[in-house]
């Protein structure tokens, strides 16, 4: 396992004393990297003997990468032993919709859904996959714990001065009035905005070469499925660390 301290910055923003928060961005079926991230977190917890540790996962657990099924297994297992918050990504949203209706299958496959089907041993015909048939096969192949996981996801999570979300927020709209669609999908005008959103927005969804840390937002999606790296953001009081597991750069 490789880990490297990329950044330690002090901001005015903080979380309440006694809490250490671990945030993980877009995993996209990279179960091995997720397991490495858990090792890193376990070492950190053992080393610092932290009081209350909260894991926050920023969504896009599935699709594109090789092992969506095992990723969900790891997340569900982790949550049994650790206080965990699971935010909904646009990929989980599409999968939930695909399980209910047939017209979104082409969209899902374009977004890497075929890798998820394969991880559940659902065969995808080479030409003209019939949506209704695939939907039934997938529903049958999906363990109950996984479908419950998909329905349990939340749009966002707030801790102290931080707002955790999959994609971002719409500038000009209070955090309490954001649409779920924006929280899961937005890129612009969020990414270019220099607005003070009221909290530091911690997000993924738009891959960056290195974690992007600014005063008003932090992007920790380093594109795991394409780069072989996964970032873990650690917040303690007003200290922020970012570490990466996986391939060294
Ligand atoms: Mn996304």
From TrEMBL:
Pfam families: Metallophos
Residue ranges constituting the Calcineurin-like phosphoesterase domain according to the UniProt record: 22-239
Gene3D superfamilies, per the entry: 3.60.21.10
Name of the molecule in the record: Serine/threonine protein phosphatase
